[in-house]
């Protein structure tokens, strides 16, 4: 049995009031320092994370649009026309491609990618409809009613198009031509600052001539077939064309 007096054992237990106050004060200083440091780097971290997420969303949208454009088919509007059904402007493009989707059967789709307004904001939307031959005197806007809209880009980002043939001369429109464009430039701009983003790209179109020209006994005029002495650079755009986008703007 211990022989230490009760008073001495009681005096050795716990902390004094002063020690407790000092410990609390030190804890408060540490927490204040952590809060100050966190307040400095957390906003930058959030902005960086948001920038990465926006870049991923824009990159996925451009990949989807480029894949659609690359699959454009040389399909006339009807039997009376030899020109492909392709309407390209600065803010929209309409073309025919093989039907794609889980609920679509074999056949062709008429696809439109372009700007529209949603809740007073510009958005880039992909819409489609089943392709059917059009009457000779009918305009595209009067006869076609698109459905299944899918939003690809939201404000403040805006998408514009430019088109080039084998001559590599860029045009803001491509309509009523005898061939499909060989390259389509996709330019992403910040709607507020009009700054061109470096994620902009160039999409090659794999087909420029009718399928009849590819058959051994197909009959095509000289203007329907590409010059054998002229290399087809649609799959590999020239370096100056690829660099032209990056030189116009910065990063996100």
Give an overview of the whole structure.
The longest helix has 54 residues, at 17-70. The chain is 29% helix and 24% strand. The chain is built from 4 helices and 9 strands; from the N terminus they run H-H-E-E-E-E-H-E-E-E-E-E-H. It has one domain (52-246). Strand 1 and strand 2 form a beta hairpin. Residues 227-232 and 238-252 have low confidence and may be disordered.
Comma- or semicolon-separated keywords:
252 residues; alpha+beta; three-stranded antiparallel sheet; elongated; disordered C terminus
**SSE topology string:** HHEEEEHEEEEEH
Question: Structural class, from secondary structure content?
Answer: alpha+beta
Measured between the Cα atoms of the first and last residue, the distance is 77 Å
Strands, total number? 9
Tally of separate helices? 4
Strand content: 15-25%
Largest sheet: 6 strands, antiparallel
Note the overall shape.
elongated
Portion in helices: 25-40%
Number of domains: 1
Low-pLDDT segments: 227-232, 238-252
Describe the SSE topology.
Elements (H helix, E strand, L loop, with lengths): L5 H6 L5 H54 L15 E3 L3 E7 L9 E11 L2 E10 L9 H4 L3 E7 L3 E8 L9 E2 L7 E8 L10 E4 L34 H8 L6
Antiparallel strand pairs: 1-2, 1-7, 2-3, 3-4, 4-5, 6-8, 8-9
């Amino acid at each position: 049995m211990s022989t230490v007096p009760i008073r001495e054992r009681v005096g050795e237990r716990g902390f004094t009031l002063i020690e407790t106050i000092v410990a609390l004060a030190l804890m408060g200083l540490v927490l204040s320092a952590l809060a100050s440091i966190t307040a400095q780097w957390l906003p930058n971290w959030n902005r960086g994370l948001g920038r990465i997420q926006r870049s991923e969303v824009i990159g996925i949208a451009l990949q989807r649009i480029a894949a659609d454009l690359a699959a454009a088919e040389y399909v006339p509007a009807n039997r009376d026309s030899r020109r492909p059904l392709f309407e390209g402007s600065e803010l929209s493009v309409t073309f025919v491609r093989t039907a794609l989707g889980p609920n679509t059967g074999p056949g062709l789709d008429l696809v439109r990618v372009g700007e529209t307004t949603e809740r007073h904001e510009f958005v880039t939307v992909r819409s489609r409809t089943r392709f059917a031959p059009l009457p000779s005197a009918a305009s595209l806007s009067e006869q076609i009613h698109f459905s299944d809209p899918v939003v690809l880009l939201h404000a403040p980002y805006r998408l514009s198009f430019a088109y080039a043939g084998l001559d590599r001369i860029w045009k803001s429109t491509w309509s009523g031509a005898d061939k499909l464009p060989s390259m389509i430039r996709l330019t992403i701009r910040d709607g507020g600052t009009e700054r061109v983003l470096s994620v902009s790209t160039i999409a090659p179109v794999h087909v420029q001539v009718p399928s009849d020209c590819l058959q051994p006994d197909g009959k095509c005029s000289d203007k329907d077939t590409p010059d054998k002495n002229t290399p087809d650079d649609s799959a590999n755009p020239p370096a100056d064309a690829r660099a032209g986008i990056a030189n116009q703007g910065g990063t996100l």
